[in-house]
Design brief:
CATH class of the largest domain: Mainly Alpha
Low-confidence stretches: none
Radius of gyration: 23 Å
Strand order of the largest sheet: 1-2-3
CATH architecture of the largest domain: Orthogonal Bundle
Number of helices: 14
Shape: globular
Distance between the termini: 62 Å
Mean pLDDT: 89
CATH superfamily of the largest domain: Intergrase catalytic core
Order of helices and strands: HHHHHHHEEEHHHHHHH
């Protein structure tokens, strides 16, 4: 079964072109699934039944995994079984009609306009690393990028004169996102005053680099933004994704149409973007209750 899984992961990389993060998630979930099957005495994929898969998902739930994580594991298993059908290893798909657990919709937390400003103003514009951080925060809020898209953003995909970035998102899907005046100003300042000092003569294709001249890691940027959030006195849990949520919600609050926001975020399905309409709706209700004389 291990050899089949290796073939499947190779298929995801070569033919599907999925991102490393997605491949890692699929690999982790499926290794866990195969280990579960072995412990149950199942060593051949044609012997797996719908009830084995349901029992595995129930075991994950009992281990404390969220419904969202359980569904992610099921998606990986579904894709794996479809591959096995395609390769002729399975004649029938035992989970073809297995329903996914319903994920309760939770509204994402966002920052207010004032909190965003407080966060963006934290890096000291005198030090090269802080100038870089300010530019990264400005680009993140201006574009709504995922943190991996930001840290891996190549120089040649940034058009400061045209005022946009070319982003390759999940599944290598391409999208163009406007930068805005403030982000352009800070990226220009970073390129002029900080990047060369950080690179120390080393060549790097990436826009944002660390003190060693290499691409920033997601973990380092996550650590940095958390520190700036604490410094700003913001009590919410500060993450790069919080700025992505704020970007989408603030655009919709200012009158942007849902389809445009979907394109900028790189969502395949507009229903994923629609959750932000609920966020803005909830905020409007609170404003109405607070300020309307009969609220």
């Amino acid at each position: 079964m291990d050899q089949i899984l290796d073939q499947f992961l190779h298929y995801l990389i070569v033919e599907k072109g999925l991102s490393k993060n997605t491949i890692d998630a699929y690999s982790h979930g499926l290794w866990r699934f195969l280990d579960y099957l072995r412990r149950k005495g199942i060593h051949e994929m044609p012997s797996v039944s719908k009830f084995d898969v349901k029992a595995f998902l129930l075991a994950l739930k009992k281990q404390g995994l969220s419904t969202k994580s359980v569904v992610r594991n099921l998606v990986a298993i579904r894709t794996f079984f479809q591959f096995l059908m395609r390769e002729g290893i399975l004649e029938t798909n035992p989970i073809e009609e297995l329903e996914s657990p319903k994920i309760p919709k939770t509204l994402p937390e966002i920052l207010s306009f004032k909190e965003v400003e407080q966060l963006l103003e934290q890096p000291n514009p005198q030090a090269p690393l802080a100038i870089r951080d300010r530019a990264m925060l400005e680009v993140l809020y201006a574009t709504g990028m995922r943190v991996s898209e930001l840290t891996q953003l190549p120089m040649n995909q940034v058009n400061l004169e045209g005022g946009y970035v070319l982003v390759f998102g999940k599944g290598s899907k391409e999208r163009i996102v406007p930068l805005g005046k403030e982000a352009i100003k800070w990226v220009t300042f970073y390129l002029k005053m900080a990047r060369e000092r950080l690179s120390k003569g080393k060549e790097s294709p990436f826009l944002f680099i660390n003190r060693s001249g290499r691409a920033m890691s997601r973990q380092q940027f996550w650590k940095n933004i958390k520190a700036y959030g604490l410094k700003a006195g913001i009590r919410k849990r500060i993450t790069p994704h919080l700025l992505r949520h704020s970007f989408a919600s603030h655009l919709l609050e200012r009158g942007a149409d849902l389809r445009s926001v979907q394109m900028m975020l790189g969502h395949v399905d507009i229903s994923t973007t629609q959750i932000y309409t609920h966020v803005t709706g909830e905020r409007l209700k609170k404003i109405h209750q607070r300020y309307h004389p009969r609220g």
